[in-house]
What we know:
mainly alpha; ABC transporter involved in vitamin B12 uptake, BtuC; 11 helices; 85% helix
Amino acid sequence: MGLEAGSLILSVAMAVAAGLVGCFAVMRRLTLAADAISHVALPGIGIALVLRTQPMAGALAMLLIGTTLIWALESHTKMPTETIVGVVFSVALAIGSMTTSGEQLVEALFGGAGSLTTWEFALGMVGAGVVIAFILEARNRLIVALVSPEIAMTSGINVSRLNLVYLLTFALTVALGLRYLGVLLMGSLIIIPAATAKRLARDLNGMLVISVIVAVASTLLGTYAAGRFHGETGPFIITVAGVLFLLSLLA
């Protein structure tokens, strides 16, 4: 399999994961917080560049640390998730801006196809598989915990642990898409397809399916358009997703 084909397959797997994760982000009213969480990756990228190691590894590590910190603060302070994410986002953005500069900062913010190694493809596919498997397996528990945490607890669901695993899954999904969309745009691919699906679907399963279709279609059409017009993939992918959302308003 060629590198170009592998990159396309991985981008589709990333889109499927983003479509599934985004549905619960929209239902949990994490629309703005979702975009902010993706910025937590920026200092990880900067530190990795300073240490001359793999930027995506640094991004994933910082995302996992950041989301765990958000979960811990939310659990202990009872502050709204949006407030905590806003604080963490601001600090992460400041640190990231100090540790990256020039072309490195632009690529981190907007992404770029770049070269894909065999190991990156394998790890990316495993990560996407983990995200997809978790959402499909835990979707009913996530809904019960969202509707009524009290009922969830009486049903034997550990709501706190479930929320932590979901946030870590969200962080992993963001890391999967940083190569193609960058820090600024990855949150958009998680939110826009899910918002489109919410407009069109009649039940949870329909919302999941429609969100995945919109995310994959946006990724494929955006990648094609980027190649046709010799531009970066991220802005084209999000533009397509935005157009599909606007079309859903007519339905």
